[in-house]
């Protein structure tokens, strides 16, 4: 095997994290260990997804409703439990906040030594699971502030997204990819199943300032405010735009990260806050996209400046190339250009 191929196969996730963290000191070891646990969770979930169609009872609904009022998929529960299990053994994470759990899950044996909180959406886009279309996991790491003795995790509701120290996602697609940032750029790893390792495949990913893709569910057109409809009319009428929408956030964001453009999940007249959750969907992705030179906005405020009112608070999301996010904002903020 040529030497460079061997070197490539040796740039594993844990080695890369440690390399990035040379200036982080003790935190470096912690973050490297946490990222390793996330990689283990990703491998366990990827394995289950790959065989879901063959394993009795792996697919379909549990019959329960989650805190979001959504029907729970068996895969949602499995993936949520995987994250809990891998972090129980980690000694590092004291609290887990998940889309699938109404309240935080505490790991007492790790508290208060475990200074970190994991916020995650274990399987995002689970409506795609039964039809074998890509889904993802989204995660963010924050440092716990205070001892949280009353178990209300009030520190999470006093800080904005700039309190995140790491964020990323796993894309379960034709290949399983883990994309992360710890504040030193955005890096992508591809799972090599023959090694059982995530190997570095793209380093220091940068978004172009503009891209041709706009990614939004136009089925909601008549539920939007007029300025947003004007934006859609603008991209319909102007050359150089193309629509791509997969209905699963991680895959849609991954496309924007690599090809540029803008993803939108705006609010509607009835639900001005939109559908996506701030703490474990919009904020981690905003952290990542900003690290790659892009932007993420609610339409009127940077996502990373938003302080959540509640654990499962939602926020509108406009995210991607900075010029394309700015164009959407110019319509929403009524500075619309001539259509
Ligand atoms: P809609 C999946 O249910 C999800 O939470 C995201 O993954 C995705 O971006 C969005 O909802 C899709 O919502 O209303 O377009 O089906």
Automatic annotation (TrEMBL):
Binding site for substrate: 124-127, 217, 245, 275
Subcellular location: Cytoplasm
Coiled-coil parts of chain: none
Enzyme class, broadest EC rank: hydrolase
Keywords (A to Z) from UniProt: Calvin cycle, Carbohydrate metabolism, Cytoplasm, Hydrolase, Magnesium, Metal-binding
Domain Fructose-1-6-bisphosphatase class I N-terminal: 11-202
The keyword Cell cycle belongs to this UniProt entry's keyword annotation: no
InterPro entries, alphabetized: FBPase_C_dom, FBPase_class-1, FBPase_N, FBPtase, Fructose_bisphosphatase_AS
Entry EC number(s): 3.1.3.11
Entry binding sites for Mg(2+) 1: 99, 121, 123
Cofactor(s) demanded: Mg(2+)
Binding site for Mg(2+) 2: 121, 124, 281
Span of domain Fructose-1-6-bisphosphatase class 1 C-terminal: 207-332
Any one GO MF annotation of this record: fructose 1,6-bisphosphate 1-phosphatase activity
Reactions catalysed according to its record: beta-D-fructose 1,6-bisphosphate + H2O = beta-D-fructose 6-phosphate + phosphate
Pathway participation: Carbohydrate biosynthesis; Calvin cycle
Cofactor: binding details: Binds 2 magnesium ions per subunit.
Family as reported in the entry's similarity comment: Belongs to the FBPase class 1 family.
HAMAP family xref list: FBPase_class1 (MF_01855)
Subunit structure comment from the entry: Homotetramer.
Protein name according to UniProt: Fructose-1,6-bisphosphatase class 1
Organism: Funiculus sociatus GB2-A5
């Amino acid at each position: 095997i040529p030497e460079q191929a061997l070197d490539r196969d040796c740039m594993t996730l844990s080695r890369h994290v440690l390399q990035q963290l040379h200036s982080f000191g003790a935190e470096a070891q912690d973050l490297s260990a946490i990222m390793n646990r996330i990689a283990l969770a990703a491998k366990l979930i990827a394995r289950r997804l790959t065989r879901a169609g063959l394993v009795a009872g792996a697919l379909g609904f549990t019959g329960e409703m989650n805190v979001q009022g959504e029907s729970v998929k068996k895969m949602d529960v499995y993936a949520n439990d995987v994250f809990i299990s891998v972090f129980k053994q980690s000694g590092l994470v004291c609290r887990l906040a998940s889309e699938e759990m109404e309240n935080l899950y505490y790991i007492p044996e790790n508290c208060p030594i475990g200074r970190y909180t994991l916020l995650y959406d274990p399987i995002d886009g689970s409506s795609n699971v039964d039809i074998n279309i890509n889904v993802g996991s989204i995660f963010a790491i924050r440092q716990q502030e205070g001892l949280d003795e009353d178990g209300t995790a009030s520190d999470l509701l006093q800080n904005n997204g700039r309190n995140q120290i790491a964020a990323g996602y796993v894309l379960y697609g034709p290949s399983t990819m883990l994309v992360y940032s710890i504040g030193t750029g955005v890096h992508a790893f591809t799972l090599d199943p023959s090694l059982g390792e995530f190997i570095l495949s793209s380093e220091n990913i940068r978004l172009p300032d503009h891209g041709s893709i706009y990614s939004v569910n136009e089925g909601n057109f008549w539920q939007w405010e007029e300025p947003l409809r004007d934006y859609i009319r603008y991209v319909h009428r102007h050359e150089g735009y193309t629509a791509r929408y997969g209905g699963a956030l991680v895959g849609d964001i991954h496309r924007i990260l690599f090809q540029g453009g803008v993803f939108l999940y705006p609010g509607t007249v009835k639900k001005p806050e939109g559908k996506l959750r701030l703490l474990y969907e919009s904020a981690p992705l905003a952290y990542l996209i900003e690290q790659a030179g892009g932007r993420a906005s609610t339409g009127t405020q940077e996502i990373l400046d938003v302080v959540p009112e509640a654990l499962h608070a939602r926020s509108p999301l406009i995210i991607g190339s900075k010029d394309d996010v700015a164009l959407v904002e110019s319509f929403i903020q009524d500075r619309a250009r001539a259509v």
